[in-house]
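Agenda item 2: zinc ion complex prediction
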Amino acid sequence: MTNTELTFMDNVGDLLVIMPSALNKLLGYRQLDSFSNEAAGVLIGERRDSHIVVHEISEPGEGDIRRRCYVDRRGSHHQVIVNEAFVRSSGRLQYLGEWHTHPEDQPSPSAIDLGTWRRHLVAQNQMVLLIIGRKEIWAAKKVTDDVVPLFRV
Ligand SMILES: [Zn+2]
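Presented output:
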């Protein structure tokens, strides 16, 4: 368990902050043994000017397809959690993007990941993409059609 948030920055100084409450859940899905399957969910939080803060995540559940090197978050509960957070916070907590795990130490997006984000993650806002590896977390923002990697600060 960590009590420290994880912070990333883009090339113009805008921050992505992952709060400990969300980070601890994400780290819990790392594929540390050879039997664990990929996991995926959505990221929920707030936009503060041009900065983004992740407070909550949705976790794998019924309806999701999970394999060693494949995941498809088809469960309907992900959208339910987004809607509940939005109502509970009077609109402050919103859907921010997507996370999933990879069974590699330093993760990077697959061609399938890039294609999926390009086709299905269409938004006017910048959207957050996280891949949870065994030792590192890869973070990026989708800005219109581009995937822009972020760096740790
Ligand atoms: Zn992937």
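Discussion summary: Residues 6-152 form a domain with the Cytidine Deaminase; domain 2 fold (CATH 3.40.140.10).
Owner for follow-up: CH.
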